[in-house]
């Protein structure tokens, strides 16, 4: 690993995820987008709408990763406590942001809905935060330090992430090859371990599948080095051909 | 909150989740099953196939929850390191378990497949662990202390959880009422906060939805106390009726 490895973590905030009421999908979307950008997502934590829990997770993860992303808890109700929790985590005062107030005032004027005190809470961000535009319902996300605070509603989360991604330093992109393997992991385990040992510049993963009563596996080889990737993938394919001969049909 | 609150946490282990290759679903299943059992899932962490990361998450979460569940990393390949990581976390030696070897030997005899050294790795558990039966592919999960180690493949995870659930102390079951709200969170935010203040024995959540260009919200009231639940839910419904009159059609 070298200095051009860019890492990230995510904190998902919301009682509704932990109670099983809502199935979380933003982590999966973020994982795919970051992998595409060559950024290594190291950890995801799902925590409740509880200030100490949010503060602990944010501080643990922002300290040891290049970037931290959060989703959820930036709406107008009493259980939306993310902005205040981020303020506590970073030791920054939280107040209504003039630019955010402008955006929201204009949005509610156009929509003819009242700009209630509850809605004005959505303009509160930690001091010095940069706003992230919300093209769907106006209430902005924000960036403060390396922490990117985004909405929990998937369409809004995705729109915010689309804006944030071009601002991130991209890592060395890992290329990958996925190899279908009709043998279960029990058969390939030992030879695959040997191939991993012989190809230290690659990361070889094996993902068991179980469908229609049959076990198979997908073998994925990843590397930032194209030659190393090809050599390791060739070794995997040669190993599988050998197994075909040995185990026959 | 009192001593009859039973809490849980989960550690999901797997590079394939963090790279976005696989969409995780076991956390959502566990969340629903635990809520049903009256057990409060407090936190979920997704970590890589990396021993220090697994050890840190397991030790942080097992210490402060009644139960900890893990999924993933108990197969036969070199990247399946959960059993060893749990051993390190709990300070216990890890070795092949006689009963697990028996189960696996019999399984592979019946299936006519070789019981390879890689497959024998699946019999390795920390000293003193209780096995969790795997009715699908034989390789057992295990329980050690308050840590329940289960497979990542969803069908196997679910089968293992079905066995484990009846052994857990059930908490006071929270009853809940979900109330449809056609107003966005900006309108209901302030009155809902007031209702929460007036009904401390309940937890009131509001979950914004955005569909077909319209915002609405689902309000969920939860309580272990049936009377408190009914009173708070009545207050929410009265608040919504008042808003109907005020905002008209």
UniProtKB/TrEMBL annotation, chains A, B:
Alphabetical list of Pfam families matching this protein: FLAD1_M, MoCF_biosynth
SUPFAM superfamilies (UniProt xref): Molybdenum cofactor biosynthesis proteins
Gene3D superfamilies, per the entry: MoaB/Mog-like domain (3.40.980.10)
The MoaB/Mog domain, residue ranges: 9-171
Domain of life of the native organism: Bacteria
SMART domains named among the record's database cross-references: MoCF_biosynth
Protein's UniProt name: Competence/damage-inducible protein A
């Amino acid at each position: 690993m070298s200095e051009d490895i860019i890492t990230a973590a995510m904190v998902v905030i919301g009682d509704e995820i932990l109670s099983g009421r809502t199935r979380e999908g933003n982590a999966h979307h973020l994982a795919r987008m970051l992998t595409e950008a060559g950024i290594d997502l190291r950890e995801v934590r799902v925590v409740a709408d509880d200030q100490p829990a949010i503060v602990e997770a944010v501080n643990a993860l922002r300290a040891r990763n290049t970037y931290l992303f959060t989703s959820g808890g930036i709406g107008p109700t009493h259980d939306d406590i993310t902005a205040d929790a981020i303020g506590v985590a970073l030791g920054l005062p939280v107040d209504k942001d003039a630019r955010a107030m402008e955006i929201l005032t204009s949005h509610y004027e156009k929509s003819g809905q009242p700009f209630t005190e509850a809605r004005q809470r959505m303009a509160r961000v930690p001091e010095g935060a940069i706003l992230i535009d919300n093209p769907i319902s106006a209430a902005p996300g924000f960036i403060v330090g390396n922490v990117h605070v985004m909405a929990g509603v998937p369409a809004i989360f995705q729109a915010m992430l689309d804006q944030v991604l071009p601002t991130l330093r991209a890592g060395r992109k890992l290329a990958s090859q996925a190899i279908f393997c009709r043998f279960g992991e029990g058969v390939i385990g030992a030879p695959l371990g040997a191939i991993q040992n012989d190809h230290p510049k690659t990361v070889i993963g094996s993902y068991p599948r179980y469908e229609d009563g049959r076990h198979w596996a997908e073998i994925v080889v990843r590397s930032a080095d194209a030659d190393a990737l090809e050599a390791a993938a060739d070794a995997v394919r040669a190993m599988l051909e050998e197994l075909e001969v040995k185990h026959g049909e």
